UniProtKB/TrEMBL annotation:
Keyword Zinc-finger (UniProt): no
GO MF annotation list: flavin adenine dinucleotide binding; N,N-dimethylaniline monooxygenase activity; NADP binding
Stated family: Belongs to the FAD-binding monooxygenase family.
Descriptive protein name: Flavin-containing monooxygenase
Source organism of the structure: Blastococcus saxobsidens (strain DD2)
One of the Pfam families matching this protein, by short name: NAD_binding_8
EC number(s) recorded for this UniProt protein: 1.14.-.-
Keywords annotated in UniProt: FAD, Flavoprotein, Monooxygenase, NADP, Oxidoreductase
Amino acid sequence: MSSEHVDVLIVGAGLSGIGAACHLENRRPGTSYAVLESRAALGGTWDLFRYPGIRSDSDMFTLGYSFRPWNEAESIADGPSIRRYIEDTAREYGVTDKIRYHHRVVSAEWSSADARWTVTAERTDTGATVQLTCTWLSVCSGYYRYDEGFRPRFQGEERFRGQLVHPQHWPEDLDVTGRKVVVIGSGATAVTLVPNLAEQAEHVTMLQRTPSYIMSLPSRDPLAQVLRAKLPATVAYPIVRWKNVLTSTAIFQLSRRRPALVRSLIRRLTAKQLPAGYDVDTHFNPPYDPWDQRLCLVPDGDLFRTLRRGTASIATDRIRTFTEHGIELESGRHLDADVVVTATGLNLLPVGGMTLAVDGRPVDLSETVSYKGMMISGVPNFTMVVGYTNASWTLKADLVNGYVCRLLDHLDAHGYASATPVAPPEGADAPFLDLAAGYVQRSLGGLPKQGSRAPWRLHQNYLRDVAMMRRGPLEDQGMTFQPRATAGVLSGTVAERTVA
């Protein structure tokens, strides 16, 4: 099978993948690259999810790219607007023609002798198998499974005569007008769905086993509105972006240092937006500290407004069984339902589900150690782009994609064939993602580990990462470089250069 060669192969055409391509276009003109996308359109998450009200769970001044201002009025943007922003960015930077749709990557094998990856993809439209080779492989496919969300089985659900729907596969023809809807879940998807469905439904109940922290945020950033009226977008955008970065960082750090204080503050803000006498301690009092899981943002308090109107309600309980006409709870209460939406989360799928091998040896991600949250020990010329869990995804993706350009420049300048991270000498056993969310906890066993110190520790701190990834040294104790002349000799050999 003949193979086409590119300098960089990018897997995924969502926010991260398009960003990676734009960084190459902007910082390394002349670098050959291709973007492989398994679906028929770009946009990733923002093309896949089509449920009512789909929107960002971060402000667009930080979820947007650092190199292209977000110019829409809304700071918390809907899915179609975000998808359009990604499409416009790809077109403006000349990336559109480099995307190859219907290409699902199934395997990647590194050859030290050739200093290149051989990547095998399946054409999802024709079933054909395609191979490409590349010098650098950047996986920007996110960390969840696109074809299947997490869907637990419920006792008695086969008896239910209504319609069961998962947000990841929302039916285009679903009409909830005048119907009773139960949304199972309490995360970002559930709090988005409830107020939107309540506009047509007879009543919507958010059924949660455990409450989440929910904060209201203006849909339009007041500072952005003022600055846009007085300054060019290229000046106003970074100011607002940094204001939001610093604000979110401060809230996260305060949550870690003074969780009781932040819990009390969120509770007071929540109680002010609920009807008088509302049972805040039952429905808005999570058993965990703030930022042990992501905070849920609601633009302009739309969820609270819906609760005040009485078109929606919250039930905090466990499901005993489904019935023909709804759900019976462990408390004995029955929730009548014509439609049940299972907003029960995601299934994680590291590196898009592809298999990796280095010189014929399969790579087990769980036995590797993360390097700077972007590469993994023992795997050369490979990036796994994973955004922040405590801030906007794109903040970290931008840093990683920029760092790849720095590394590629470094390889060229010094005649290196490859860059290979090594594990810390003392070992590592910290989880890759420090988040208590169920979708993370279910999948930690299949992810790389973290070390106890930099560069093997994922900071989850944009300010520290900016210093490390934009200005920090490329040669450190966690990275080795292999010269072109002896590219076939890797870890543990005399031809390898390790920087102490």
